[in-house]
Every structure is written in structure tokens, then in C-alpha cells.
Amino acid sequence: MTIQEIKKRTEELGERQWDDSAIRIRYEKLAKEGIPRKTLSKEEYLANKSQILERVQQRAEEYNYILKNCAQGTALALLEEFGLGNMDIIKALTPFPGIGGTGGICGGITGGLITFGLYFGSNNLLDFETAGTTIMHAQMFMASFEGEVGSLYCAKIQETIFGRNMDPGACPENMEAFAAAKGFEKCGTAPGIGARLAAEFIIDGMKA
Fold it and tell me: How many structural domains does the chain have?
């Protein structure tokens, strides 16, 4: 996406009529029953890649909107799509938007990276070769995200989306201004892009 396309998507999210009920029902089912396991078939995923990427992007936007958390929204969309992990992982991402609300690394990245660990990583933590390959995927993913969005950092991404860093974690007044500017809707842009890019890396990196 170009910066112009990102801004257009952001405005569309600000005006979107969100189906709160349907999103909440889907989320509550995952919260109650857990993330369903899946048998990953590279052939099936490649055949449906375009549809999957669109779905992952939209669901990351929706989960970000309902959870008000970009890291959780990104990860939940990916874990649901690929049948990975559990809801405790989503809980653990609670403080990760902008790395503790400091304006640091965007949750669209951290949510993707944790999914990479689950998919590409090894159950044997002494398997350093697999760890190195996973980190290589992570670096390529982060470079792709930065190339599309223009930055890895929440504060800079907010400047693209809102024209300035609204710094919602700084004080209650900033958070109120952020919400009034439809921040939780518009900030779905970054997790949507992050989830889409991460899903593409996972599909392309699947073993036959």
C-alpha cells in the first residue's frame, strides 16, 4: 500500500459501520471455547491466499476495534486463521500497543512476531537453527511493514494517520481526544496491514 492508500483505508475505517454484535459474538466464542486447532495444508492455503489475506486484514481491524488493542487484534486474527496458540497469549499482549503505550513498536508488528514464534519456532528451545530462521522471517516481515507504513513506531504511524502523535497513553485527556478522533477505529489500519503481511509470510513459508 502507498501512503495515500493507507490514508484512504484509515478514513474508510473511521466511517465504517462496525457490526459490533457479530464481532463481539465471534470474539466471545473464542474466549469461551478457545482457538480451534487446524491442519495446515500449504496447497489449500495457497489456493485461497487472496481470500485469506483479505479476511485476516479485516478481522485484525475488527478485533483492534472491539478490544481497543492493536497487538491483541493483530495476534487474534492470525491465531484464529492458522489455529495457533491460545487466549492466554492474547491476554499476555495487553501491554504491547506501542510497547506499553510509549509510542514504541506498533502492535501490528508485535502481534505478528508472536505468531511467527508459534508457527516457525521449535518446541525445542535449543534448536538454534530454527530460531535463526524464525528471526530471519521476523526481520523480513518488519522491513515489509516499514516499507508499507513508513515506520515501525506507533508515534510515527499516528502522525501518518492523524497528522500528529496523539499519545493516548500519556493522560486521560489524551485518551479522550484519541477516542473522539475515532482513534480505535482508524488505528485498525496498522494491525490490518501487519496481520496481512504476517499471514503472507506464513503461507509462503509453509512446508509442503
Answer: 1
As a whole number of angstroms, the distance between CA 112 and CA 60 comes to: 11
Q: In this predicted model, what pLDDT tens digit does every residue of 54-82 receive, in sequence order?
A: 999 999 999 999 999 999 999 999 999 99
Phi and psi of 124, rounded to 5°? -90, 105
Helix 3-15 and helix 154-162, axial crossing angle in degrees, nearest 10 = 70
Region label for 165, one of left (φ > 0), alpha (ψ between -120 and 50) or beta (otherwise): beta
User: How far is 16 from 51, CA to CA, in rounded Å?
Assistant: 20
CA distances from 105 to 27, 99, 148, 154 (A): 25, 6, 15, 6
User: Rounded to two decimals, what is the model's pTM?
Assistant: 0.94
Q: Which domain holds residue 115?
A: 3-204
